[in-house]
Design a protein that fits this description.
Sulfite Reductase Hemoprotein, domain 1, TIM Barrel, 20% strand, binds iron/sulfur cluster, eight-stranded parallel β-sheet, 2 domains, alpha/beta, 360 residues, 12 helices
Length: 360
Amino acid sequence: MFCCFKKTREVCHRTNCYQVAVGDVILGGYHNVAIQSMIKIKTSNVDTVINQINKLVNLGCDLVRVAVYDEKDAQALKQICIKSKCPIIADIHFNFLFAIKAIEAGCKKIRINPDNISDIDQLKQIIEKAKEYKVAIRIGINGGSASKNSGVETQNQLVKRMLNWVNFFEKQNFKNLVLSIKHSDPQLTYKANVLLSSKTRYPIHIGATEAGPNDLAIVKSCSLLLPLLNKGIGCTIRVSINGDPEQEVYIARAILNQAGLYHNFVDIIACPLCGRNKFNTIKIVNKVHQYLKDKKCHLSIAIMGCVVNGLGEANLADIGICIVSTTKSILFIKGKKVKTINNNNINSELKAYITKFTKK
Ligand code: SF4
């Protein structure tokens, strides 16, 4: 629906690529960039997995991937697909039979790395099954799986490896493809995806892989995803964090919001604080942030530590607080000074107005 490239002459890969359906989620064209995450517990723990999937969906996740590691996981897929609120993607490595079973169980997309499915006939069987069930296949080329090559692959080598496989799938008359090239080096991943987007019209899945712990993963994801999204590349994104999948979804929403591609997001403007601040602003900001993480509405909230930049920022936000002394703050609503409030009441006042806005 949103594309930053409408105003420029450069071709936007996202809006010009083929559209691929993953259940009721369409990748490509003017459809929203789909947010995906991955379940981090064993797939055979059906009830816990379903709880986690549906929690992620409520937080704004469009697609969820599960790893199919063994026969128990493969057996669990049918129940998971029935009970999930979103289309399920099965992540398969090495064993082609799990791919066949995942498709038959109702998964709407499978993610494979063809380089680790050794037998071409096995790949052909996966493709035929995917055709029969109208299931999409993501070809996932990963820098970490370049076992046949020594050393670090260049972007040209990664793209070449991908295009060879695309050619193979097309020869089997299969075009329901999503492509991803990932590497633990975000700069290399960026270059490879830019190159890939110039050579193909299939939807591209983007994300920084093996990105590390929370703060580092956020830095790597932003440094990779925002430039790609701003270039019109990426129909679906995953933020990979060595941690909570709920955080992955929140960060993905925030990144898309910053790229102008996702509007149902509450943006919080808060100053970094300095010696002029006279109240415990950090506590207020943290509380509001926690409260707003799962809210899906277009809203801006400014919480500012003093009048230097505070009056202006609070004035520009939908809901603005400018702390003016140790006891008093000014509350702004949509650019109008509404009242002076006691600092001890900032949270309750904010919550009341946020409720009003989010109910609309
Ligand atoms: S708004 Fe005031 S308290 Fe906040 S960083 Fe600026 S000068 Fe410091």
